[in-house]
Protein 1
Amino acid sequence: MSIQVDKVSRTFQGTLAVDEISFEAKQGEIVGLLGTSGCGKSTILRAISGLDTEYDGTVCIHGKETRGTSRELGVIFQEPRLMPWLTVIDNVCFGLTGTKEENREKAREILRVVGLEDFEQHYPKQLSGGMAQRTAIARALVTAPSTLLLDEPFSALDAFTKLQLQDMVLELWESYKPTMVIVTHDIDEALYLCDRIVILKGQPGELHDNLEITQPKPRKKSDTKLAELKEYILESLDISRTPKQRKEA
Amino acid sequence: MAISQGHHAEKESVFKSVIKVKQKERQGMPAFLKTAGLALLFPILLLALWEGVTRFGLVAGHLLPAPSEIVGTIWAMGVDGSLWGHMGITLYRLLWGFFWGTIVAVVIGSLVAMSRNAETMFDPLIQAFRAIPSLAWVPLFILWLGIGEPSKVTLIALGVFFPVYLNVVGGIHSVDRKLIEVGKAYGLNQFQLVRRIILPASLPSFLTGLRSGLGLGWMFVVAAELLGASQGLGYLLVLGQNTLSPNVILASIVLFAFLGKVTDYALKKLQTRALHWQDNMKN
């Protein structure tokens, strides 16, 4: 499903947080929302997900304007947000509506994909951070949503788990090509996963750039073209220099 | 040489730790008995001392009867059957009051916690009522409901109501907004949000409320029975005072302690079973 974000602005208690952001995610595209902290990436994602409805502008999903949550959208948050009183498998079944047996079968299948088939009866308190996030990913995927929204999904994880889960997400994307919007502040992550990178900048956040990345996936981290792009993004975000130096210049 | 010495030392330490583990295994059962023994040591000493001072006439026996005499009193009441009647009626009053107090607290508490309008309407009034010492209601209850069971059960229910109410409201208010958002992202309606997220998430606070409610329930059952009853453990207190028999008073106190502990233990078991998923110090 495609997503069109058109001139979305959001004001919190009189302060403008994001200013007229527009971009599009085509069907099956992975779009990264990249920017420094506080520029309103997550605000935009919350507007798309429908968890926040107090924004100005419009969000169209598959050409139809929507304001509010939809079962077509799967959301993966920065923290796993698992229900602590449910086991791993019941957490994965949380969003399913079918019969118990059907749901469990589906959940088991997806738990195998994320490598947690031996932990289905565990409670969240018994899981490591990476395992909990994998459970959360499984919970979002089990309903096979046509669009996945990911809000800094790997930012709380260690470097190794992060790489592992990035590959896992890519594999899952390969399997049925959902449209994905992923919020991140990690340039390498954006370059590794995304077909398009929307760069936000400033406070209030404004659209700074919209880059299309044509390299086929899976990509090599050492790709020279990607390294050049990284350099370009760093320069355009103006974070290679300290604010003081910027003032002097 | 130095290497071989180091190796030897390492081997020895491994050997020692194996022995330690084996010793621990062997001590497994006595360790449990040791804890039980340690916990019982002080109460038993105290009882022995009490028995001793009354037996040897160091305190006036007609004011402080020996523990054996108290056990004898309970035993005699058990044999003539009156014990079961007293315990039964007290438990009945407590549980019935506890039931109604809890039901009303859950209904009003959920309403107040879920709706801002309900909170504005009811909460200030409930808080004002809470400020009134509940025993102050007794004369009014007796006037309105008579001296029979209804006034006693109402008084106990009133005592149970406040701690349960406060914990239901507090529990629902403290449910993690982030979990509710997960439910909303899956398109759950208000009723489903309550059933699938808010209720289980506020369960720990609710169970804490139940336990403190039960504690207050026991307090109020004594108050209710002191004020006019012809049967019950509280009535035994009055009877003991009027017939100058401290052994009956102490027997009643011991029975209150026993029943209070048993009912609290049952709730505690329920709490541990229902909340085994909690990630806290105890689990």
Protein 2
Amino acid sequence: MLVDFFYRLREGGLKVSITEFLTLLELMKKRVIQYEVEEFYYLSRACLVKDEALYDRFDRVFSAHFKGVEDLFGPDGADIPEEWLRKQIELGLSDEEKARIEAMGGWDKLMETLKQRLEEQQERHQGGSKWIGTGGTSPFGAYGYNPEGIRIGQDGSRHRRAVKVWDKREFRNLDNSLELGTRNMKVALRRLRRFARQGAADELDLPDTIESTAKNAGMLDIKMVPERHNATKVLLFLDVGGSMDDHVKVCEELFSAASSEFKHLEYFYFHNCVYEGLWKDNLRRNSVRLPTLDLMHKYPADYKLILVGDAAMSPYEIQYPGGSVEHWNEESGATWMKRLLDTYPKAIWLNPEPQERWSQTPSIQMLSELMSQRMYPLTVSGLEQGMRELS
Amino acid sequence: MSDQRFSGTDRYVATEDLTTAVNAAVTLGRPILIKGEPGTGKTQLAEEIARGMGRPLLQWHVKSTTKAQQGLYEYDAVARLRDSQLGDERVHDIANYIVKGPMWEAFEQGIQPVLLIDEIDKADIEFPNDLLRELDRMEFYVYETHQTVVAKHRPIIVITSNNEKELPDAFLRRCFFHYIRFPDKETMAEIVDVHYPGLKRELLSEALNAFYELRDVPGLKKKPSTSELLDWLKLLLAEDVPAEILSSDDRRKSLPPMHGALLKNEQDVHLFERLIFLNQRNAR
């Protein structure tokens, strides 16, 4: 049973090593804990998970694996927000519809499916016949009709039962595949800071030189160390307007908070795609534009270029002259992108859109190709990958 | 058995997940890595394990310039050079210039000691890697004197980190790990009770409300933590502030008394003052 658990953890994306697993078994053998599931949960977490960002993943695997053990899966599932289930529609169904729903399968199957749906579903839903929510014909939810249905969050007859620790999923917002929020902003900042510290020029290490000279009985022995001082210069291009505004605010805050760590940080705005002009002040975007060419001459090639944008636009805006939605551009967006990338070999694109959706938007595909796949999601792990690419 | 297990002390409230992790580390003699928000009692944990179990405590505070070698021993070459210039007799025995570090001292203790390696993330990225073998086998080799130092008892090693640097996987695999969450209201009331047993109940509940409301103010640069709450309560007690002053109606109109203990940043104080101003305007 525990071997299965071990493999499930690895499938779930936790890199648990054999030594860690053996440690857990050794502890079990030494009777460090009594025979309680909760204690076992704490113990296995301390042994197997070494990063609080992975606690949530562990909770999910643990919950999935041990769900039979304590019959812990009750109707009070911590995952279901009340608002999904607010009474909205009273439903009347014909007899044949009822019969069809009845054919869905037994109790066990319903529970299984519910668990699955919960894992898939992320937002409120009502009506319809599949998702969990109110007033539909799905077997799950409240105030709907399904003879075999499971009632969730409905007023009255709720089983008062404590929700298990691992089902509360309190560490969810520490998971680093989520979008940047105020909470994981700090972590992201540390990633940036580390990136900023990686400039490596040599300088004289005076204390070490003295020490090794002394060890050497007075013969001069010069020691060098890599320079800790930050030498990173960053050009930040931000897409503004429409859906991007919230993300841009997050990014600006993020980078300006890290700006003391960079030698230089300059930021400019663009809309959808980069063309011949950029601007610094969004209020005067139409009057004061800086020619992109001047910019490329002003900032040398050792600047690192970070573009932030959702890259969602019509393909014309990238491919054709005159494709821009705002003005007449003499040359296509793709031409300008290539020019920029030729000038700044170290460049990445950060995209706040969830990565799963990238393949469905042609313009994201095109820009990602232009960037030679150096497009990363705007999450903590995406930032980390991006910074690795840049350094 | 009683002193083999750690279950919190009269000064320290340990939650069940924390004691489980600590006891696992004590049983196998492996290091335990503690992370958490600043001010949640990471460093204090080591002191309390030592006190609760009656063990000696050795501390090693890590700085950005600390090297792994310094925890084991240092060879004071400069002193030896000086002695050789002065013709001192001691210079012939290199053992005179070996200075023991905290790990060596921990290895020499007669009973199992507690060794605190504080803020390991402050050091260089290679620092944890340099300690792998020492933490694993609890022994090391002194090149200058050709001797191997082996731990008499595997010390209980408590390592704290503020998450400023990522720690290498090989290092993490040798440790137990625990993340101290910010305590919920009930645990917090327990913690306060442990520190100030005589605190009046209404004062405590008003103070806790004020404190959690303050933590919920969006945009604070540094949220007040447990240690700040405890300091603040101490001040409230010293000034004998009555509970009514803290009640929520008043707070909308003014800063809580002695707010300096909770808000450590003038931008935060300004932000809070602005919020109060807005509240007053809305009230009219």
